[in-house]
């Protein structure tokens, strides 16, 4: 038993994570259901560090020093349960099973509870950054017990990405499913970020009349400012890419149907359960869904729309500046909504999640890494009980400064018939929160009328009902 850590499940993610551990000086036992993959890993990358090839589950467990740290990187869902079922009987109290797959946090809570009874620490861990991140430093979001973090944290800190200030992009998120919950919301925010960028692109193309190559340059410029982020950077790369077979812009030869694996959808489903408005993330999930309804789209192609009016060169440049404002303002709203969901999950499940720490560990390694996250961390550092990111003075000032342009972009989008559901949902959220009065008062009246659901008054305590079918006098409910 010489390995400090073991990785089972050696597809792209597990293999790269195992190599990352080895490159950082840890001795890594490797195992895979199909043992040939473990063999191949050692044959191919054995010179990168210390690997211990193991063939059977028993050999694998025997190779690990105690308490054992066993990282599972298999397909989420049933395969994860199958692996737990295989390994749990071979482990001893104090050992750790670290699930680095994209598990649903409810599954993680169940697995943690079941394994806790055996004295085994189950550490549901969000890993972001794709295969590149797994190899060179991902953002890591471990849940599970504080005790398990004490034994595991230093290793994760070593293999994780580092933010610009050198701090590791990992921290103990909270008990049981907290890590997978935060990873889920990370992915939801990623969907929203991608959708907002996609809308900005579409508006620059169809309203301002820019080519993909020109838009790539605009994104490169934006990437030197406050929108500096991995997603903006790769957007410029994708837009500048030319298809070798046709010579056309790559974006023009890719089928316009976006796919999804499910974490964005989970983020919205859970938000509905928690009663948290994540309209920006929801619109992003729905936008992918709309794009995939080929028949619906074909059947709707002849619906009437406005005739587009091309902008002059000067007007196009001014419009691009406005789109940057709209994108930035909408991005603030997406993160406001996402962090609200994390705060709500934390309260519901008693996780006590440090929102500033979450922003901090997303600064490197993960898909949504951005300079912007430093600002979010600073906002929570200044005030840990910040009720909303929009309550932060700095963000409030910036979104206030952006609002005229944000509105102008949506006017143009509406007039020219270009869908911008992410921008629109974000602005509607902003305006709803600002509003002195919402039409919810009318909604309550309707509910009381047809269902006697009662309402509260602005001027006195208590619940009331109006006798709508009778003399319309009010009674206390
Ligand atoms: P996959 O999700 O494609 O899983 C393949 C691995 O699962 C193989 O090692 C396979 O073993 C193993 N496996 C399966 Br399938 N069923 C099994 C079973 N019943 N018992 C034991 N092993 C089983 O691999 P991946 O793309 O590397 O992702 C691994 C995890 O990381 C997933 O949960 C994924 O959601 C998550 N994740 C992926 C990314 C990414 O960018 N790809 C990013 C972040 C997180 P075999 O070789 O014997 O078939």
Automatic annotation (TrEMBL):
Keyword Lipoprotein: no
SUPFAM superfamilies according to UniProt: 6-phosphogluconate dehydrogenase C-terminal domain-like (SSF48179), NAD(P)-binding Rossmann-fold domains (SSF51735)
Binding site residues for substrate: 102, 128-130, 186-187, 191, 261, 288, 447, 453
Active site: 183 (proton acceptor), 190 (proton donor)
EC nos: 1.1.1.44
Coiled-coil regions, chain positions: none
MF terms (GO), sorted A to Z: NADP binding; phosphogluconate dehydrogenase (decarboxylating) activity
Keywords noted in UniProt: Gluconate utilization, NADP, Oxidoreductase, Pentose shunt
Domain 6-phosphogluconate dehydrogenase C-terminal residues, every copy: 179-469
InterPro entries: 6-PGluconate_DH-like_C_sf, 6PGD_dom2, 6PGDH_C, 6PGDH_Gnd/GntZ, 6PGDH_NADP-bd, 6PGdom_BS, NAD(P)-bd_dom_sf, Pgluconate_DH
Catalytic activity: 6-phospho-D-gluconate + NADP(+) = D-ribulose 5-phosphate + CO2 + NADPH
One GO biological process term: pentose-phosphate shunt
Pathway: Carbohydrate degradation; pentose phosphate pathway; D-ribulose 5-phosphate from D-glucose 6-phosphate (oxidative stage): step 3/3
Residues engaged in binding NADP(+): 9-14, 32-34, 74-76, 102
Cross-referenced PANTHER family: 6-PHOSPHOGLUCONATE DEHYDROGENASE (PTHR11811)
Described purpose of this protein according to its UniProt entry: Catalyzes the oxidative decarboxylation of 6-phosphogluconate to ribulose 5-phosphate and CO(2), with concomitant reduction of NADP to NADPH.
Family to which the UniProt record says this protein belongs: Belongs to the 6-phosphogluconate dehydrogenase family.
Subunit-structure text: Homodimer.
Record's protein name: 6-phosphogluconate dehydrogenase, decarboxylating
Organism: Streptomyces spectabilis
